[in-house]
Amino acid sequence: MAAIKPLCPLPSPLKQSIPSLIPWISCKPISDFTSSFSAVQSTRQEGDVAASVAFNPSGNFDLSLYDDEDNTPKVPPPMPPTEGRFEVAIDNDIISRLDLTPFHSATGITSPLSVEPKEFLERTIGFTINYAREDPHDPRELSEFPEIRLWFVRLDAAYPWLPVLLDWRAGELARYAAMLVPHQMSMRMGVVFNPEALELFIMKKVFIVYSWLKQHNVPKPRLKAGDMARMLGFGIGDELYDLIDKHPLSPS
């Protein structure tokens, strides 16, 4: 059984590795990409955070309960949105009705079978979430509201290959993952994912995205699927793609 091991020293004496479900996936810090996004000011009490080992998409483990360690690097903010990207705007009404019309209107994607990936890979897709909180002092991040997460769950169910088309450098992939994967918010480290849940999410998306890109004859599908995984701190070995190619599935 392979293990996920960070390549950087852990700041805690709890230096256990987290067993990986698959021998072709590795965890490593990716310094060339910014896959996490920073948390805004929060009024949480220290006792509100569960004691658990979690995984940060930058490749670090957050083993402390609180953000009181001065030597912990602070997550930098994401880059500005890609110019000319497809912008999907949603609000409370859209979210409450689980209405995907804004996505269809902004992107022109109305059916999973009618998408040509090339233009979307070049321009990318991003989201503007205009969500009005009932309590203006509610400290939760957008990814912590169940109704917002449910909207993204429906979107992902309809278009499971969508993560590869998102504006990664602007933090859209990390935010999208946060809508679907259990996590905590850290003032210093940003989004801190549950490690096993994140690994399962990444593997599922690699299977889907790699096959989808190949189906549409997109050049270098391994590289693109691998880059997507790397944005969340994981490396995918060629052995996995070899197995997928050896036992392909018919497109549904």
Strand sequence of the main sheet, in spatial order?
1-2
Helix-and-strand structural type: alpha+beta
Percent of residues in helices comes to 25-40%
What overall form do the CA principal axes indicate? globular
End-to-end Cα distance: 32 Å
How would you state the average pLDDT, rounded? 77
Main sheet: strands, sense, barrel: 2 strands, antiparallel
Contiguous low-pLDDT stretches (5 residues minimum) are 1-19, 28-67
**What is the element string, with H for helices and E for strands?**
EEEEEEHHHEHHEEHHEH
Strand content: 5-15%
Helical run tally: 8
Give me the count of strands: 10
Radius of gyration computed on alpha carbons:
18 Å
Verbal overview:
- The protein has 252 residues and is α+β, with helices and mostly antiparallel strands.
- The chain contains eight helices and ten strands.
- It has helices spanning 92-96, 101-107, 117-123, 146-158, 172-180, 195-215, 221-231, 238-246; strands at residues 3-4, 18-19, 25-27, 54-55, 61-62, 86-91, 125-130, 183-186, 190-193, 234-236.
- The chain is globular.
